[in-house]
Amino acid sequence: MAEDVKVRYSDADLAKFKELILEKMEKANKDLELLRSSYKNDGNNGTDDTSPTFKAFEEGSETMSKEANTQLAIRQEKFVRDLKNALLRIENKTYGICRVTGKLINPERLKLVPHATLSIEAKNMQS
Fold this sequence. Notes:
Blueprint: H1 11-40, H2 52-91, H3 107-112, H4 120-126
């Protein structure tokens, strides 16, 4: 008899992955809010320092750090979007299936990169 190949992760496995993704999403959203507030300068980030050296440093690096924070926020928004898409794949029961090979993505990889859509095998074929 042919080897029984798993076509998808079990509902129990999907539930565990969903929990992991929701945890990562909560943290990612908090990080995103911090980034947004820092580049919008919504909050006073303790710049009311009496040290003139500190003040000069703050003003000199303000533009650069705003740009850096904006870039970080854009990457973080993409990460949150990728996590949301992973949740959709869990609902559709297609989560963890490589979009190139159709094989299951290694669960260890999914724990590290829960929004992965490619197996290591497929990723290596791209490079």
